[in-house]
Each structure stands twice: as structure tokens, then as C-alpha cells.
Amino acid sequence: MKPPFSSPTSSSVLRKARFSPYLFTLLAFIVFVAVLYGEDFSCIVELGSESDGRPIEKRREKLPFAIGEIEGGRCDVFSGMWVRDESNRPLYEESECPYIQPQLTCQEHGRPEKEYQFWRWKPHDCSLPNFNATLMLETLRGKRMMFVGDSLNRGQYVSMVCLLHSLIPEDAKSMETFDSLTIFTAKEYNATIEFYWAPFLLESNSDDAVIHRVSDRIVRKGSINKHGKYWKGVDILVFNTYLWRGSFDDEVKDIVEKTTEDAFRMAMKSMLKWVEKNMDPKKTRVFFTSMSPSHAKSIDWGGEAGKNCYNETTMIEDPTYWGSDCRKSVMEVIGEVFSKSKVPITFLNITQLSSYRRDAHTSIYKKQWSPLTPEQLANPVSYADCVHWCLPGLQDTWNELLFTKLFYP
Domain named Trichome birefringence-like N-terminal: which ranges (predicted)? Predict the structure, then answer.
């Protein structure tokens, strides 16, 4: 089965700028497009155009850690197609990386095929640079890189460790966990790659890194410093967050129901305020990874009602596919908030390219922390995990895109 040959894109031609009532609508659209195409929000299009109608861009200041431009010139690296590449994939073997959590080791837990490991993401208008582990480690020498967020961001963190650790001698690396903080240390480089568990960025009732399954998830407004104190001094910071239920205000002690969009806006504003106060844009980089899609409803892609990602071994072919669990309105919120940022925040738009990959989830091939009931065993769909991803696999591509945006923004 062939992968999608293109990703859905939006385009617009900016005409010569005029100070008209439509100007602000145009600017709002530019911000939204910038979110969808992974731009740094310090580089929004200026008013004005070339003689042929193309927009003039502001001069892009060199971002920290940047070493050049992507081969083929600037392009939307998030718009492309999956190409089967068994000779160069996977980037490492599951058995070679001891840091993968048992809930992500699909081969160890009986997955009968490896087809999901053999796909490489290729942008339409350029080629991604090869992931260079030596360059990454040298860049991290004497520095800290941290992933902050939920279990999906932890998966991306583990992927990054797996991509790097083989270059480090066994006695020169370690991984330790201290409550919400996990630290991988490359001793010879005096470098750390860290993960901090903060699923909603703000203080929440899901902050226990081990026991965090609750029926009603709530967050405390204005509480980002509870976690943020552990992020200070980080050189490369990668955030994510998505799932919301509500929030509570510490002053009134009452739980206030919020829409997903409003709750997300609250967290993004708090994060942005913290970043502007604590991150030096001349020395540090901040990334935000977009929502990771789930595949819990096969009816979304024309499958049978009541089914999900279980037993799916091929990707979705429809290039316009967008699952019901991913809200484009949330993307708009990100654009709205980040467009006001005083420091560059690079948006890693992994949602669309990941949406095709119904085949890459852990499904039933993971450690089960509780014994399965006879009813579950008789119906694997009932306990298939269609949220998390096998490693090696899709999240290695996320890190290839992070690598690209870090060094070739």
C-alpha cells in the first residue's frame, strides 16, 4: 500500500499591502498559516510585496545553534509523504536501546512484523538532512536539553536518547529519575538530556509521574512556576501538552469548567510568559510539539465502526485525512498566543504527518500493568493502545524534524 503522496496544504498569495479594513484579517491568517507550517514566530511576514506580488519577509536573525539552511532552500518540512526505506530504517534497533520503557517495546511484546519501522518522511520540496548524532552531542557539550510534557513527549525524549546513546561509552553515560525529572547524562560531554513530567505544564492533579490516571483532570491557574523552577538554565526546551478537562482557580476554590480551547489558551499564555522571563533568545531555543493524533475510531478513516488501530499494519492513504480527535481550533489558539511572543518559539507540526500512521501505535504489543480480564483477551480492540507509539518508529521522525529545525531553521 502506498503512503499519501502529499499532505493537505493551505496557500494564499499576499497582494500588495494596503492599509484597509481587511488588513487585520490578513495578519490573523498569516499567523494561523505560520502555525500550520512550523515557522518561528519571530519571523512573520512584513507588509509589502515584490513587483510580482510575492510577500517580502523580514530579515531573519540567526537563531542559536543554527548552522545553515536546509538543502534545496527553505520549504515546509511538515508537508510531504512517507517513503519506504528499509535500507536506512530503523535508525536503531529496539534491542540496542535499553532506555525504552516496556510500554513502547512492541517487538519484545510480540508484534509479529516490523513494517511500521521502515518508513522515512520526505518533504515535497526538499530533503531532510540526515540525523547527525555526533553534531547533536557536540552541540550539547556543556549544555542541557529538556523535554517537558506528557507521556508522548516522554516517548520523544526516549527516542532522542536512543538516537544518541550508541556513540557514548557504556561507563560514560547514565540515566536517573528523581520524581518528575529523568536525566540522561553524557559524562564526557558534560551534557544532559532530560524529561520533566508536567502533562499540563501548569500544576495539576496528574502531576505524579507514576500515578496520574484520574477521571477528572484539573489544573491550577497561574501555577506554572511550580514546575518552571526545574526548567531554568535549560538551553534547548521542547514542550508539549494537549488533553484537557477543566481548571480550578486557587482564589475561589471552585472548579471552573473550560473548553479545550480556553484551557489550552490559559496554559499557552502561562508558558509564553515563563519563556519570555527565563529564556535568553540569543543563547537558547524553545520548541513546541503539536498534538499527537490517536487512532481510536476506525470509522474516521472509513473502517468498521467499533474498531480502532488494533491489527492495522498499513498507513492511511488519504492525503486529506484529519482525525476527529485533533482540533484545528487548538492550532488556531497556538497561533494566536505564540504570535505575541517576544522570543522565537519553533512549532513542530507533527500532527498531519502522524495522522497517517495508524500502523505505528503500540496497540496490544506492550507491557500491561494490570492482568487482562478474560473479556479483554477475547476482544483485543478493548485494550489496544492507540495513543502511544512503538520505538523505534514514528517518534524518531519527530526528532529528525527537531534536528532539522534546530540546525537548519
Answer: 74-127
- Where residue 218 sits, what CATH number does that domain have? 3.40.50.1110
Domains held by the chain: number: 1
Residues making up the chain, counted from first to last = 409
Residue 6 lies in a domain: no
Q: Which parts of the chain have pLDDT scores under 50?
A: 1-3, 5-26, 29-33, 35, 37-39, 41-59, 212, 244-253
Given 127, 151, 180, 223, the catalytic residue: 151
Whole-model pTM: value is 0.83
At residue 239, the 3 state secondary structure works out as strand
Catalytic residue among 165, 227, 295, 388: 388
Residue 78 near residue 401, CB atoms below 8 Å: yes
Active-site residue identified among 207, 235, 385, 396: 385
Q: What is the pLDDT of residue 52?
A: 38
Residue 65 lies in a domain: yes
Q: Indicate the helix (H) or strand (E) that contains 383.
A: none
- Provide the residue range defining the domain that includes 349: 23-407
Q: What is the four-CA torsion angle of 19, 24, 30, 36, rounded to 10 degrees?
A: -170
Per-residue pLDDT at 204: 57
In a domain, 303, yes or no: yes
Respond yes or no: is residue 227 known to be catalytic: no
Q: How far is it, in rounded angstroms, from Cα 265 to Cα 274?
A: 14
Q: In the numeric block, which cell numbers belong to residue 402?
A: 527537531
Looking at the domain assignment, is residue 48 inside a domain? yes
Known active-site residue 341:
no
Residue 241 pLDDT: 84
300 is catalytic: no
Residue 403 is predicted with a pLDDT of 99
